[in-house]
Here is the input.
Amino acid sequence: MSSAWNASYVTPDGAAWLASAGTYPRSTLALWQERPDAPVVLPCGSVFDVVSAPAMFGRRMLDRLWDDGPGSGPVAEFRGRMQLFAAPGTAQRLPALLEWEEWGAGDRTRPVPPLLCHGTGDAVTVAAPAGDPSPSRSGARWLVAPDTRQPWLPGPEVLLWAAVRAARPTVRISIFPPPDQGAKVYDVSRRR
Here is the structure.
């Protein structure tokens, strides 16, 4: 796991950003002041969208985002799935981009996990700001916690890029044919 994405506690500014997605932000903040370990359900579409991926695939996406890309926005784990917080509108656009990329069409050699896109009209359970030291209890914890009132959120193109690279982690293109395992090999480096 990349150490770059190991912030697991929401700051007060991050909590205010999360709460701003709900209809009654002050009530959500008051609840979190009283019970900082309480997950809540928040609507998607205006402040953030969420792309949910199976945990292992989501971790590979997150690694690609941090190791080879621009990083990520907030990321939580909930009941065996990764929740990648994304820019509003991502849930509407990403499925079309994945379809255009022919996500899984006719290729059964690589696992193609279901990516669930939550946008306008959807709601997600958000991990508690204090983090859950025992994720098995609530099933929710932060991997990259929000720490500002305006966190950077990846858009559909960035998440497409990460998903494609996570699905094809070992693809190597070579202009040489694969070696013949039964061929005799001679050392010609000592030729005169």
The longest strand covers residues 49-54. The beta strands are 40-43, 49-54, 75-78, 81-86, 116-118, 123-126, 140-144.
